[in-house]
Write a structure and sequence with these properties.
Blueprint (H helix, E strand, L loop, with lengths): L8 H4 L2 H6 L3 E3 L10 E4 L19 H11 L7 E3 L6 H4 L5 H9 L2 H6 L2 H6 L12 H21 L4 E4 L20 H9 L6 E5 L6 H6 L6 E8 L23 E6 L5 H19 L3 E5 L17 H12 L5 E4 L6 H15 L2 E3 L33 H16 L21 H31 L1
Parallel strand pairs: 2-3, 2-4, 4-9, 5-6, 5-8, 6-7, 8-9
Antiparallel strand pairs: 1-10
Helix pairs in contact: 3-13, 8-9, 11-12, 11-14, 12-13
This protein binds zinc ion.
GO molecular function, one term: histone deacetylase activity, hydrolytic mechanism
EC number: 3.5.1.98
Main location: nucleus
């Protein structure tokens, strides 16, 4: 790739040159098709705080947004500030009890609660009770649902929500820093019109919450690439977990060892995803782009560079299938934001100047290199031998052979309706309907009176 920008200091400090230097270049689009990309971000989400020692830092979303805006990527996309998800939207998947708990619990009340209640709702170090936890969940979930609605209406071909992707949350409880499973809710929404949805997860951790929710259906294929040794969080994701009943063979797991590098990850990813997409023929794809699979992640153990992670997103985009793209894990904020900004550029078919724009308000975070592509490989030994990766690939390709070609859909399988209406809107509609009913009744009564009178 050639980037027609001078790398010399002379140019970067020359103001006139800098003002006329574009921050991105459109890639050659040979297909002649235009892709509508939308970006769903409610800035309030970055203001919440899990606690000072907790590795999940929602302000990484603000850093990401600053980068996206500084690179002027807003010129390429439709921008939306989504509303919060409503309680009734969240209970389409989560239990009423659990959402009640999330809505009413506060850090002050936690101290007075019985241990048993805290244990019942899996509250602890990983998933603490923090101020505004329910609002935080409603904001990132609202953004994923908004993105899914734009895909359903056909207004977007690709819809991005970096604040979503909380793949561990379960029906009855939070898990691994995730409270509400925005991915499951979005897929349920997409299934209203899409016969087959494929879920692809390249977070460091197994996408257990999403796999579990769709384990027995052939309408959602879940594919997760992750570190696995039976103990590493969440403990699931072995290659033998393939789905159950109708869903048998529709859950795919790619367990990896520490230290996987760019080349082997990309090769494995493409050689597995290509036959899966060809066979399953999804009509929509949800891709979870957890950034903890990058090298030098605070909780990570892989060796991936930003370009390699982005190559997976680029590859899936080439299939031209409508796509919801969400974030996920990622615990070194400066690299999380670099990655997601880079992936935003990939999805918009543009090439960014690798030098981070120096007018960025959070520029200091990106030193000392101030580059979009810091070197992230080599910290950990690669424990994935060629032989091991080949055996995993072989086992998965065998599983693919047993897949029914693009299973058909029975309409009765369509899940409960998830509308885009808020409670207030629904109330207003209800009121309007009741008013219409009353009017009709009055008219009927009057006509009866009239009849009687004549
Ligand atoms: Zn993760």
């Amino acid at each position: 790739m050639t980037i027609p920008i001078s790398e010399t200091e002379t140019f970067s400090t020359d103001r006139r040159t800098q003002e006329s230097t574009p921050l991105y270049f459109n890639n050659n689009n040979t297909s002649g098709l235009t892709t509508n990309v939308s970006y769903h971000y409610n800035a309030e989400v970055s203001q919440y705080h899990y606690g000072s020692l907790h590795p999940m830092k929602p302000f990484r979303l603000m850093l990401t947004d600053h980068l996206v805006i500084s690179y002027k990527l807003f010129e390429k996309m439709d921008l939306y500030t989504p509303r919060r998800a409503t309680r009734s939207e969240m209970t389409q998947f989560h239990s009423e009890d659990y959402i009640d708990f999330l809505q009413t619990i506060t850090p002050e009340k936690t101290a007075k609660l019985a241990e048993q209640t805290l244990a019942q709702f899996n509250i602890g170090d990983d998933c603490p009770v923090f101020d505004g936890m329910y609002d935080y969940s409603a904001i990132y979930t609202g953004a994923s649902l908004d993105a899914s609605r734009k895909l359903i209406s056909g207004m977007s071909d690709i819809a991005i929500n970096w604040s979503g992707g909380l793949h561990h949350a379960k029906k009855f409880e939070p898990s691994g820093f995730c409270y509400v499973n925005d991915i499951v809710l979005s897929i349920m929404n997409l299934l209203r019109i899409h016969p087959r949805v494929m879920y692809i997860d390249i977070d460091l951790h197994h996408g257990d919450g999403v796999q579990e929710a769709f384990y027995t259906t052939d309408r959602v294929m879940t594919v997760s690439f992750h570190k696995y040794n039976g103990e590493f969080f969440p403990g699931t994701g072995s290659v033998d977990e393939i789905g159950l009943a109708k869903g048998r063979n529709y859950a795919v797991n790619v367990p990896l060892r520490d230290g996987i590098d760019d080349e082997s990850y990309i090769r494995l990813f493409k050689s597995i995803m290509e036959p899966l997409i060809t066979k399953f023929q999804p009509t929509c794809i949800v891709q979870q782009c957890g950034a903890d699979s990058l090298g030098y992640d605070r909780l990570g153990c892989f060796n991936l560079n930003i370009r390699a992670h982005g190559e997976c997103v680029k590859f899936i985009k080439t299939f031209g299938i409508p796509m919801l793209v969400v974030g996920g894990g990622g615990y070194t904020p400066r690299n999380v934001s670099r990655l997601w900004c880079y992936e935003t550029s990939v999805l918009n078919d543009v090439t960014l100047d690798p030098k981070i724009p120096n007018f960025l308000p959070t520029y200091d975070w990106f030193g000392p290199d101030y580059s979009l592509h810091p070197q992230l490989e080599g910290r950990i030994d690669n424990k994935n031998s060629k032989k091991y990766l080949e055996s995993v690939r072989h086992e998965i390709l065998e599983q693919v052979r047993y897949l029914n070609h693009a299973p058909s859909v029975q309409m009765y399988e369509i899940p409960p309706d998830l509308t885009g209406l808020t409670d207030e809107e629904e109330d207003a509609i209800k009121e309007l309907n009741e008013e219409n009913e009353r009017e009709k009744k009055i008219m009927k009564d009057e006509s009866k009176t009239g009849e009687f009178m004549t």
